[in-house]
């Protein structure tokens, strides 16, 4: 009985610790280390930030415009996929 309790506590601690280290991955996206992959998800807005992420792949979504403050919560972002691939009509895209 004590072993089961300790096992549950250990699993909970490891889950919380891993979640803190890896950050929360935005809905409809997958995270791989410092890379956030949101390709082909029909996103119309920039996903919620992942502060440790250095790469963001938004290829083939439906993002038509990006507000000036869209990446304020992405302090370590150094690489962004070609967002022009998001809109079928490139003339309508506004950054």
Automatic annotation (TrEMBL):
InterPro entries (UniProt xref): Leu-rich_rpt (IPR001611), LRR_dom_sf (IPR032675), LRR_TM_domain-containing (IPR050541), LRRNT (IPR000372)
Compositional bias per record (Acidic residues), positions renumbered to this chain: 81-95
Record bears the keyword Repeat: yes
Sequence ranges assigned to domain LRRNT in this UniProt record: 24-56
SMART domains: LRRNT
PROSITE patterns hit by this protein: LRR (PS51450)
Keyword annotations from UniProtKB, A to Z: Leucine-rich repeat, Repeat, Signal
Superkingdom, taxonomy of origin: Eukaryota
A cellular component annotation (GO) from this entry: plasma membrane
Region of interest: Disordered: 74-95
Signal peptide: 1-22
PANTHER family: ANTIGEN BSP, PUTATIVE-RELATED (PTHR24369), CHAOPTIN-RELATED (PTHR24369:SF210)
Name of this chain's protein: LRRNT domain-containing protein
Organism: Dreissena polymorpha
């Amino acid at each position: 009985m004590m072993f089961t309790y300790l096992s549950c506590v250990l699993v909970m601690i490891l889950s919380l610790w891993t979640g803190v280290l890896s950050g929360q991955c935005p809905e409809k996206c997958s995270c791989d280390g410092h890379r956030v992959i949101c390709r082909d998800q029909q996103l119309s807005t920039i996903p919620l930030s992942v502060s440790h992420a250095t790469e963001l792949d938004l290829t083939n979504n439906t993002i038509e415009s990006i507000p000036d403050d869209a990446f304020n919560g992405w302090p370590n972002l150094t690489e962004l996929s070609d967002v022009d691939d998001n809109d079928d009509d490139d003339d309508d895209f506004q950054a």
